[in-house]
Amino acid sequence: MHILHGTWIPNSVDDFVIDGMFYLWVETSEKRRFRSPRHPRQLVGDELAALLSGDLSIQPPDYRKIEDLIVPRYFILPTVDNEPLPSVELSRYLEADLPETFEFQPWQVECYPTLTSAKINTYSTRQANGVVPMLNDLHFIALHNLTDVQLGADLLFWFHFTQAIKRLILKDQYIPALKYHELEPAKPTKSTRKKADASTSGAFRVHPSWEFIGEEYETTLQHYVDFMPLMCVAGFAESPGTVDLYDRLSLLRHFSDCLLVDVVTHTYLTKAIEKSIDDSILRGCLHPVPWPQSVGLETYQQWQAWRDRIIRTQTDQSFHLYFHLYDPHKPEDAWQLQFEVAPKHDPSLRVSLDDYWRMRPNQQKQVKQQMGENFEQNLLMNLGYAARMYPSLWRGLETDQPQGISLSLDAAFTFLKESAWVLEN
Question: Cys-Cys with 49: which of 54, 67, 179, 265 at CB 3.0–4.6 Å?
Fold first, then answer.
């Protein structure tokens, strides 16, 4: 029996920006004789390559051989008598009882990185992290028992977590990001000791990147961290000096950030799109190379002010804004896109703005108390943000008491097809 494992492992580099890679490895019921610290129940070399390419149909990028991409990584695993314990999944097939007490010890395991080739424009392809589609395929194979391979709890966790992250990416819940990195001053030498080196005083770099934004992302992290198996935080790029595992939340956040950057920067772009974003922050974030100090500070300050406004809007707002599309009673009449609000603490208390503006002052006061301080001001501001994504909403803002807008049948269909899912965010 073969148990397929895998997890995210950050690179062991001492740098401001640290990436990583998702690795697969196979635990087998047959014990091999390896010199410690090599894991005795693992597939290695040609056997590992044969299982990955044959039974699991994994294709390496750029016509390379799987065995050329296999690398050693280290996992801190429960150990008894200088031998790693089998996983829970494998122990069922071995009919072995797992001991109640054990110690942790690092073990070397041969792993395969989940690389793929991504076409980024008409002429170029680049290697990218293909963990999401690969986990989809592996889950399908295991679910339908198409081979004698079972997914370990660690790999099952990553499958479900990547599905949640994929939904956030598809809903565009991310923004371009700039990360400020203050450089350490260079150590003085004999030739520079007598005069200050102005080029290293207060030196910094700005690193373009991408980041998730919104409450749903943070809620997703907090939800999945409670179900994260210990095996997921046990992998290291080099043999660890201690048996300390990664912090679960930090590793989930690192994986999510790296995956987002990888997905966005490997998105296929036409020449027209490339031309439209020339000389913009988007181009820099799609080609993330650190900016020198001479060009990065002003842009970073502008971006930070823009980001802070978005963060304050999302975190300080105490109500949800909804857009409810009503079909007409008669086919020839217009469709109605009505504006509605509900307090975050109780979304069931939804109120249409059409009803709100007709309320008596004492009734409006009760609604304002439910929706939070400066409700009407925040309402107009958020309707303005929504109108930037769906310009037809500007018609509803021509009055100081916005209620909604009318749409033709074609416009209503276009709204449902192209814009509703964006406003849902």
Answer: 67
H-helix segments, 266-360: 271-276, 281-286, 293-316, 353-358
Sign of the CA dihedral running 272, 276, 280, 286: negative
Residue 251: alpha-carbon gap to chain centroid: 11
**How far is the C-alpha of 390 from the C-alpha of 414, rounded, in Å?**
11
Residue 254 has pLDDT above 50, yes or no: yes
pLDDT at 195 over 50: no
For residue 228, what are its two tokens? 């994260």
pLDDT at 225 over 90: yes
Nearest to 89 by CA among 154, 9, 23: 154
Judged by DSSP in three states, 285 sits in helix
Is residue 149 a contact partner of residue 51, using CB atoms and an 8 Å limit?
A: yes
Long-range contacts, 66-72 (Cβ 8 Å, 24+): 66/112, 69/112, 69/113, 69/115, 70/44, 70/45, 70/110, 70/111, 70/112, 71/23, 71/110, 71/111, 71/113, 72/108, 72/109, 72/110, 72/111
CA dihedral 394, 387, 286, 246 (to 10 degrees): 170
Cα torsion 342, 348, 349, 353 to 10°: value is 50
Q: Is residue 411 within 8 Å of residue 328, measured between CB atoms?
A: no
**β-strand 115-119 against 103-113: which pairing, if any?**
unpaired
Closest CA to 130 of 28, 301, 6: 6
Report the alpha-carbon distance of residue 76 to residue 85 in Å, rounded.
11
Q: What is the pTM of this model?
A: 0.77
pLDDT tens sequence across 390-424? 889 999 999 889 999 999 999 988 888 777 765 55
| DSSP strands (E only) in 88-189 | 103-113, 115-119, 125-129, 149-151, 174-182
Tokens read off for 10? 């950050």
The SS3 assignment for 209 reads strand
The two three-digit tokens of residue 135, written as one number: 């986990």
3-class secondary-structure state, position 219: helix
Q: What share of the chain is helix, strand, coil (3-state, %, to 5)?
A: 40, 25, 35
Counting DSSP H helices and E strands in the chain, the numbers are 15, 15
Q: What distance in Å separates the CA atoms of residue 387 and residue 396, rounded to the nearest whole number?
A: 9
Range in 182-186, 202-206, 277-281, 302-306 the model is least confident about: 182-186
- How far is 234 from 76, CA to CA, in rounded Å? 5
277 pLDDT more than 80:
yes
